[in-house]
Amino acid sequence: MKVLILIILQFGLFLSAYAQEKSTLVFRVGLGNYSMKSQKLFQQDFLRESGIPYRKVHQFPNFPTFGAAAGFKIAPKASMGLWFEFASTGGRLHYKDYSGHAMMDQVLTSFQGGPFAQYRVNKSEEWPLYVTAHGSVATVTERIKSEFQIGGQPEIEQFKLNATNVGIRPGLMLGHAVGVFNFQFGLGVEFRSDGKLKDNEEQFFRTSDGKDLTAEWNGWRVTLGVGIVL
To answer: Given a cut of 70, is residue 100 above it in pLDDT?
Structure first.
């Protein structure tokens, strides 16, 4: 988190020194798909070792993302700025019969931010097409909860794990201006380091392939944004 704050402060000073008159504040919603190979293996390991015929309710599906960006025009065809985004996904195993129930949840969240740059590659002022690059530092949290109940009070185990990832997202963005509003459609692919998840006591979880549990957020991203030209 300290690294993220330092990057934001340094880049903010750069922007305040070199930004030209036009700037845009954009709010984005999107959809992301996530690799999560390590998480899927951990879920499969738990299912196999438990001996309970769980049903796989969720296997880290595509899920909405929410974010914002502030961009500053630094050249006729180029802009730079800062961006932030929140993403989440998860897995769930569940079983229930006349004697009781059992479940295991893996809920992952990611908050990332950093600098971005974009460059217009066509001549159209009405429908500009940009090549984009987003860099980021992400703080990742995973909450694992298992619950088992037959008859009386349920037996519950809970763990909270954390990791830090760094990443880059190259992509394309199509824009369209209507008055002071700027509409955007973005498509990109995210590449992130796989930070090892650990608890507050620096303990790691291990999967059946002999590796430490990680959160792999690599995948496609689609975003829709509405911005205001300031």
So the answer is: yes
Q: Please give the residue range of the domain that contains residue 160.
A: 2-229
Cβ neighbours around 162 below 10 Å, total = 16
Find residue 226's DSSP bridge partners: 27, 183
CB 172 within 8 A of CB 131: yes
The count of domains in the chain is 1
Give the H or E element holding residue 228.
Answer: strand 219-229
pLDDT digits (tens, 9 = 90+) for 125-171: 889 999 999 999 999 999 999 999 887 788 999 999 999 999 999 99
Domain with residue 95: its CATH number is 2.40.160.20
Entry field: residues in the chain: 230
Instruction: Specify the pTM.
Output: 0.85
Query: For the CA atoms of the chain, what is the radius of gyration?
Result: 21
